[in-house]
Amino acid sequence: MAEVSRDGDSSSSSAAVHIIYPEKPVDEEPEAFHLRTLASVLSSDDAANKALIYSYKTVASGFSAKLTAEQLLKLDAIEADGEAKV
Predict the structure, then answer these.
(1) Is the pTM of this model over 0.70?
(2) What is the pLDDT of residues 2-52, one digit of tens each?
(3) Mean of per-residue pLDDT scores for the chain
(4) Could you give the 3-state DSSP secondary structure of residue 66?
(5) Residue 22's closest CA among 74, 77, 82, 71?
(6) Residue 74 CB contacts under 8 Å (≥ 6 apart), including other chains
(7) Fewest Cβ atoms closer than 10 Å to its Cβ: which of 1, 29, 38, 84?
């Protein structure tokens, strides 16, 4: 995963803003897909809704979210299965 944007400190307990570019979802609304992807990392829909800052869906498919370094690594593991680019 190539990190595109980060704001803040990179310690594992401190969350920072990241822009994630997953593959464009098929047969699913982009924001629903983005929230589902985040929920798989954060272990709850509520945490995903709180972390999601913006869902990009017009020109590019992606989202910005506030994540810790540990959460970003979990998202990176999802990318290893071919789903997202950070």
Answers:
(1) yes
(2) 334 444 444 557 899 999 988 888 899 999 999 999 999 999 999 999 999
(3) 81
(4) strand
(5) 82
(6) 41
(7) 29
Question: Residue 41 CB: number of other CB atoms within 10 A?
Answer: 22
Q: What are phi and psi of 25, to 5 degrees?
A: -70, 150
Q: Which long-range contacts (CB under 8 A, 24 or more apart) does 68-71 make?
A: 68/12, 68/13, 68/14, 68/15, 68/16, 69/10, 69/11, 69/12, 69/14, 70/12, 71/15, 71/41, 71/42
In this structure, are residues 15 and 66 in contact, taking their beta carbons and an 8 Å threshold?
yes
Position 86, amino acid: V
User: Phi, psi at residue 24, to the nearest 5°?
Assistant: -65, 130
